[in-house]
């Protein structure tokens, strides 16, 4: 391991992580950054997507000298099959999350002792209306039960198109119908993908990729959308909330607990438990001043949006949080949890506790969460963390000072309220600002970190360029955390960095130029926002015509592959910081980056330089504005107080 601080600075964009990488080195702790160096010469066949190990005649690797596998499959078939399987992994992860919350809602509707109750009753009525459900004369529990049945039915439907797809604009549904990719049950879509990619079934790369799009629609307009809708009902629809982000949120004198993963079922209860007076007393009796709860990854985003729980860091900070030596317990659920955590924790006193039966890690303690007595069970776990405070080695503690203020909680309902007021919530002011050119368009930046790249750097550089060009940025997942750490999520940021039009809008509404919309499953909130903009009128009747773009700077997870696919299928161009594992097939590359344009009016773009990406993104936004006939240059004049009062947003 190098001891050169400049080397650490070349790996991560925030100073708190640099400090912890240095500490990890001094403490002889291996992190993913070290393992990446060890594994740097990664398999080219895997990277290009032309290694096939689908059957036991193989593995087969495609080269110019051996252009076909033993069965005769060529690079196109192999790359397309691998791509489809990646989309299946991502679709499954997000959708299974949605299923768990939907099943919990059904139990609540049936009066089971779950320890949970519906936090947002209005969301139940609003969602029922969204699905066109008949609610006249029905009581709340009945409506909830029928709604849960719709959600659950979308997983199991065999021949019917899933109902949640009905929430997409008509233009998108017509495109999918014409292309034959309206999805049936989410589970069926995944099973069919596994069948199609089994040895000797679907060999046509176009046919395989079209199923990838169909399945991704079942995710974005199905499983993920259900996850967000059901979570809002159960845990509350987020509203604007102030908090803090980065490792500096940990407190030396407190018991520090971190929740990490994606499913908020337990962490939401931990957030409540950690604030209980008897728990604070318990912590004081143990010699601490209190309890600090922080989050990592998307569980963090969930509890930030609903409870204001501060965020300790994003994906590549999970090991570094433990390296502070100040974390009594890290509570993990599902997805993006590194199996290395117990190995890092061995160097300190941190307990790693896994809480979901289907997600165990060697070296982690399993906690049997009792959902029927959810709060008591969560309190028991918090107490275990407090009991561990006495084992902290004070000499091993080093908490970086860095933390930034962040405003999060921008659900679609909240954006509507902020734009139009509590009683006349509307997207009209945003549409008008886009039409008038004060806002050039909207860009959704989503996804992960990856040690192949300087952590957060792409996102941070891109955001700066975009807001300067009057582009409203909306974010989810680990990139939302990147921008939070980079100080771009406060209304004051707009004054400093945003272009004049965007600044004017942000000032009038009181929002940051970069909106935190939630976890990676909440990318559907971005689609929901696009749908609201279309429904509001004045910007065409299709998401595919909107000046909107998606970006995934540091692709890491299979979920990002599925997300990119459903954005493109929905008519939104997607820029990705490095190519998928498809570069070994020119045809597959061509299909995803060019041919899809004819089908969806959107395609994938692989652009490794953020400044170049910004230029190309602006060009896409301008092109869409041109087609809408709104790309006229607005004459600018100095805005006085009177104008400001009259400004429509
Ligand atoms: Fe090789 Fe074909 Fe088997 Fe793949 S399916 S491992 S290409 S023989
Ligand atoms: S946690 S999927 S690294 S966003 Fe959602 Fe972050 Fe990506 Fe995991």
Short summary of the structure?
With 649 residues, the protein is an alpha/beta fold. The protein is globular and about 65 Å long.
Descriptive report:
The protein has 649 residues and is an alpha/beta fold. It has 27 helices and 16 strands. The strands form 4 sheets. The chain has a 6-stranded parallel β-sheet with strand order 6-5-4-7-8-9. It is globular, with a radius of gyration of 24 Å. The mean pLDDT is 95.
User: Count of helical segments?
Assistant: 27
What is the multimeric organization of the chains shown? Answer: single chain
Percentage of residues in strands: 5-15%
Q: Estimate the global geometry from the Cα principal axes.
A: globular
Helix content: 40-55%
Overall average residue pLDDT: 95
Distance between the termini: 53 Å
Radius of gyration using CA atoms only: 24 Å
Protein traits:
649 residues, alpha/beta, six-stranded parallel beta sheet, binds iron/sulfur cluster, binds Broken Fe4S4 cluster
Write the layout of secondary structure elements.
Elements: H1 5-11, H2 15-26, H3 32-38, H4 44-48, E1 51-52, E2 60-61, H5 75-109, H6 121-130, H7 140-156, H8 170-179, H9 186-196, H10 205-235, E3 241-245, E4 255-261, H11 264-273, H12 277-285, E5 291-296, H13 297-307, E6 311-313, H14 318-323, E7 329-332, H15 341-345, E8 351-354, E9 365-366, H16 374-387, E10 404-408, H17 412-420, H18 428-436, E11 441-445, H19 457-468, E12 471-475, H20 477-485, H21 491-497, H22 500-509, E13 514-516, H23 523-536, E14 548-552, H24 558-569, E15 573-576, H25 586-600, E16 604-606, H26 610-628, H27 641-646
Parallel strand pairs: 4-5, 4-7, 5-6, 7-8, 8-9, 11-12, 11-14, 12-13, 14-15, 15-16
Antiparallel strand pairs: 1-2, 3-10
Helix pairs in contact: 1-2, 5-7, 5-9, 5-10, 5-24, 6-7, 7-10, 9-10, 10-23, 10-24, 11-13, 11-16, 19-26, 21-22
The structure holds iron/sulfur cluster and Broken Fe4S4 cluster.
Iron/sulfur cluster (SF4) is lined by residues 52-55, 57-60, 69-71, 73, 78, 199.
